[in-house]
Amino acid sequence: MKSRLVCVSNRVTLPRKVSAPGGLTVGILGALKRTGGLWFGWGGELTDGDPGPAEILTRDGIAFATVPVQQQLFDLYYNGFANESLWPLFHYMPSRFRFRPQEWAAYEQVNRQFAQALLPLLKEDDCIWVHDYHLIPLARYLREMGVRVPIGFFLHIPFPYIETLRVLPTYAELMRDLVAYDLVGFQTDSDLNCFLSAVVAVFGERVVEDHCITVGNHSARCGVFPIGVDVDAIQKTVAASQRSEPVRRMVESLLGRKLVIGVDRLDYSKGLVERFAAYEQFLETFPHNCGRITYLQIAPLSRKDVTSYAEIRRKLEQAAGRTNGRFAETDWTPIRYLNRNFPHDVLMGFLRAAQVALVTPLRDGMNLVAKEYLAAQDEDDPGVLVLSNLAGAARELTAALQINPYDPQALGHALQTALTMSLGERRERHRQLMQNLREHSINAWASEFVAALRSPISAPEVRAAS
Ligand code: GDG
Prior knowledge:
With about 475 residues, the protein is α/β, with parallel strands linked by helices. The chain folds into 2 domains: about 5-230 and about 440-455, Rossmann fold (3-Layer(aba) Sandwich), CATH 3.40.50.2000; about 230-440, 3-Layer(aba) Sandwich (Rossmann fold), CATH 3.40.50.2000. Helices cover about 45% and strands about 20% of the residues. The protein contains 16 helices and 16 strands. A 10-stranded mixed sheet has the order 3-4-2-1-5-6-7-10-9-8, with helices on both faces. Helix 2 packs across helix 3 (about 100-120), helix 3 (about 100-120) packs across helix 4 (about 140-145) and helix 10 (about 270-285) packs parallel to helix 11. It is globular and about 65 Å long. The two termini are about 35 Å apart. It binds GDP-alpha-D-glucose. GDP-alpha-D-glucose binds near residues 24, 347, 364 and 368.
């Protein structure tokens, strides 16, 4: 019998609970639905006292084990170190980076508490898969507590080149913690190469051989495992949701106009401010589109307590208001801007209805929305993906219209090209893109990572960086 898969992430999304959407949740659920297992992490509660043991709820073969986080640590650990130090730096935005020693200390402390609460739930033949930047030190604490089962780590966001990483005063400690895993996985070759640049800077060249890093008497492997989507599941969802009331109402409200869509967590890394500015410029440059297209931007709020997120929200409200004020007619609004969550099936129905998707992050580990959009299209009459060349997804999705998200003119021209592209070209591009999607599915991502984690050292499954 195969060992049990234990996924660990900062946040656990409990079944049937409405919570902030995100790529990590989509990925972990995708992995656990196949194999069953345990998902451990923060359940969303804060406590004044000791976090205590995990609460467990089992549904459809998955045990959801949640712990609270101490009130006095949460802000420092989550809003502070994770989202004001690591997130901006790993997305190559050092100007948004800040470092506070007490936040780093809280980050370590929460990781230690997670390890303590996870420890009693572990079985001898488990295989632990830790997700994302909130939990980099977890393996070290588990090892110190005597855990000997394989522990892997997957980074959902980009890994920066050493010269950017060096901005972080505790970068060497983070590197020490990363090589304490048995397997470290990245979204793209470029992230893996950047990681290796940091390994060499911290431990010297001699520790790396064939994507195996040996420090002291421990060896960690590293590899590329691009996350993907479940194409068949999305197509099934779309088929049903097209007839649903919210999707029909939205489509009817377009009155035959073409739909341009964007779906992003409200986050500065997603390039929304730049996208809104580019759209305004696009309407100036190509005025015949006024009254003929509608841009629907869905941007659910995330990390509301982080200052820079409140600031970008203000900027977007102003930009949407300005564009609508300048260009709207009594019977037409150029931008529909919503800070709401939608159920997954409705969202897929909206994606299907759009002739163009704008996925223009300033930096992104992968970007699942780009892949979901493609999977949701009608292959006989597909829409066009305008994709940032700074998203991890751009490495695979070479048949998308790729642009630099900082260049408003390039974005505007790509949008115009997308809106006027011939059916033949749309079909051909979509055909190629679907091949990429099927090659790097969510199942391949999870099964390749877990197989590599379970297999002994020098596993052939670990793909090399080019
Ligand atoms: C991180 C990395 C990497 C969005 N709005 C709603 C909603 N969503 C869903 C999307 C998609 C997911 O959330 C977002 O995933 P992304 O990949 O686009 O972005 P992040 O949240 O930043 O994810 C990213 C990912 O992890 C996976 O490794 O690709 O680079 O940053 O699935 O559809 N879902 C629902 N309602 C919404 O309003 N139900």
